[in-house]
Amino acid sequence: MKKLFKPAIHILCLIPLFILISDWLNDELTANPIQYLTLSTGKTALRLLTLSISITPIIFLTAKRDLNPARKLLGLYAAFYAALHFSIFVGLDYFFDWELIYETILEKPYVLVGFAAFSILSVMAVTSTKGWKRRLKKKWKPLHRFIYLAGILVTLHYIWLVKSDIREPLLYGAIIALFLLLRIPGIKNVITKFKNRTDSAKAAEA
Ligand code: HEM
Fold this sequence. Notes:
10 helices, about 85% helix
């Protein structure tokens, strides 16, 4: 079962890409293919980022350490879809017009925060290797906590561009904020004490 865990995550994370390729091959990229590709890759990147962020609190609450490899894989796939999202914007939407891209990043706040989130995700992806972990030593963990900032920036990016119905981006924002709250030492201590108490009560019952 343990052996199937990583391949299962790879398959799950690649499904959205296969769907996009199948849509392209079957001419089903809608009347506005660039927008369809941008929205699909953006949404997938956000979903995987949220899942990646959820792993640490889930391990903390359930003590299931086996889930650990999922955090890195989900984070890497989030960065991969974010890179696709950005490449579509740069290549298909703006035809590599770097001057216009630079102006748009500075002029449109939602693009600026999206770009900031993408930069954070890229740094996380590059420094996720064992080599970088060794090189950065104690700095590695604090650096990788910036993943929460990336989550918040992507939520802002999403809220800014939908304009009317902001329920969905707010939902992602609330989930990320909740996971962030669970990392605050005071809150973590209260939960740990509660867990210890219920564990001892269970042990006494057995
Ligand atoms: C340089 C970086 C980025 C640029 C230039 C960018 C650009 C865009 C654009 C132009 C749209 C709107 C498409 C439309 O309404 O036609 C969009 C939507 C979106 N982007 Fe980004 N983005 C960036 C980074 C990110 C990152 C890093 C993520 C997630 C990790 C992300 C997630 C999303 C989501 C969730 C949507 C909305 C999808 C929907 O409405 O269904 N973006 N982005």
